[in-house]
Structure to design on (461 residues):
């Protein structure tokens, strides 16, 4: 949707000089300012209200919100937010929540807080969720010549800080992070936790669960059943004779714990559809997930018994620790495409910092928010959130350190640098591993590279 027709006609008829700026999708004026990287006090929006005489519009910057009681007292009559049905009929050329603050163009009375200083450059919402209009202060004030001036009815939004007479400043990272988290946890576009994953999770918590229970559950999803059987027949497991049923795949090849976590990982990721190409695409996601899961499971066997974590949980964390990229691609496609392109150009070495700079949040945080909202195990949530944090020392540190080591080893291998003196010794010490053990495991892993790649193609299909 382009700039609202009513606004375009009004601006052009008054010979207002302006420019239209396209930005990534936003849901609120404050989010628009954050995305466009402009001071919130420079972006104006309206709050449409109703009083005894009909509709009216209060115009305030994105850094502020309306104090309805204070404004009612100033006007000597009660004002309250307009009904949505009233808005949709008057602002038919605007998307809901994206109304330009030009009341006169729509025949509405307008009130402005005279206590606020208008900046030299002003931005306003253009009528949809991806465009802003930029103009000078002079031109903006020309649009408000008939407005009523009142004082001190606008309140500073929490999290926005004023600095003397300068435009309000915002901590971009913390505010955008809060808004992204809210969208992740509340968005209707995201699927609920898949039923299969929910039931596997319940079975996982049952100390009396048996192979027959897991077989009965997985058989209800034919595609998942086929994946488990094909997985068990992979040369990677070197099982002679092959298997043709779930019970044998679990009892003779894969094991109860591994299949349960494999099923949960596949079920959780299945609903998320993202583009295939690029360093964040689906093909690379599953390649990294399969290699990470296999490597974490193999490393698990080398860790001293007194420290050794559960192999199945390690495998699940390997599959899902980059889950945030699925969330990003599913819910924030424009941001995903931009970050995908950026990482393709700059490489993955400093991805965490690039993500913070570009999004204000890392993929680990994005993924952990949804996993936490789904009430999944703490070790999975923590490992997803912290696997790039070298200072983490919480309850799930064994899993976090394994995920960190796995990421570093795979990155080193891709650049041909898996050498004894290049290994992260501090991580090895934390896990109780020797460098020669790790090099042996890496050699074994990539001896099965062809088989692992077959599994990648199977999962990414």
């Amino acid at each position: 949707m382009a700039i609202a027709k009513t606004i375009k006609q009004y601006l052009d008829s008054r010979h207002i000089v302006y420019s239209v700026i396209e930005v990534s999708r936003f849901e609120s004026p404050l989010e628009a300012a954050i995305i466009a990287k402009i001071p919130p006090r420079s972006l104006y929006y309206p709050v449409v209200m109703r009083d005894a005489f009909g509709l009216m519009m209060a115009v305030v910057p994105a850094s502020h919100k309306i104090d309805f009681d204070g404004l009612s007292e100033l006007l000597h009559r009660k004002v309250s937010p307009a009904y949505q049905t009233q808005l949709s009929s008057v602002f038919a050329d605007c998307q809901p929540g994206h109304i330009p603050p030009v009341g006169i163009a729509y025949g509405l009375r307008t009130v402005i807080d005279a206590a606020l200083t208008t900046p030299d450059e002003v931005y306003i919402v253009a009528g949809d969720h991806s465009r802003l209009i930029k103009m000078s202060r002079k031109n903006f004030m020309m649009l408000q010549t008939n407005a009523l001036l009142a004082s001190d009815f606008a309140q500073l939004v929490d999290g926005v800080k004023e600095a003397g007479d300068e435009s309000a400043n915002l901590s971009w990272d913390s505010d955008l992070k809060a808004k992204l988290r809210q969208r992740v946890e509340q968005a209707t576009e995201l699927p609920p936790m898949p039923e299969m994953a929910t039931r596997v999770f319940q079975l996982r918590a049952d100390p009396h669960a048996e192979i027959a229970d897991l077989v009965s559950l997985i058989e209800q999803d034919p595609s998942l059943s086929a994946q488990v059987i094909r997985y068990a027949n992979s040369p990677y497991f070197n099982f002679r004779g092959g298997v043709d049923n779930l019970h044998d795949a679990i009892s003779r090849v894969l094991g109860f714990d591994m299949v349960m976590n494999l099923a949960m990982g596949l079920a959780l990721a299945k609903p998320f559809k993202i583009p295939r190409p690029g360093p964040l695409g689906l093909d690379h996601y599953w390649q990294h997930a399969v290699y990470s899961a296999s490597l974490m499971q193999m490393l698990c066997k080398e860790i001293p018994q007194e420290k050794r974590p559960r192999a199945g949980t390690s495998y699940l964390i390997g599959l899902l620790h980059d889950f945030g990229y699925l969330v990003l691609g599913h819910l924030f496609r424009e941001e995903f495409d931009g970050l995908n392109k950026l990482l393709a150009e700059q490489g993955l070495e400093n991805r965490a910092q690039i993500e913070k700079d570009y999004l204000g949040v890392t993929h680990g945080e994005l993924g952990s928010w949804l996993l936490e909202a789904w009430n999944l195990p703490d070790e999975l949530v923590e490992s997803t959130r912290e696997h790039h944090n070298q200072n983490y020392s919480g309850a799930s540190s064994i899993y976090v350190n394994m995920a960190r080591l796995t990421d570093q080893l795979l990155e080193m291998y891709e650049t041909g640098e898996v050498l004894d003196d290049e290994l992260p010794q501090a991580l090895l010490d934390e896990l109780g591993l020797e460098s020669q053990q790790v090099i042996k495991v890496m050699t074994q892993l990539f001896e099965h590279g062809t088989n692992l790649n077959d599994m990648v193609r199977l999962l990414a299909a």
User: Anything to note?
Assistant: The domain at 272-460 is CATH 1.10.3210.10 (Hypothetical protein af1432).
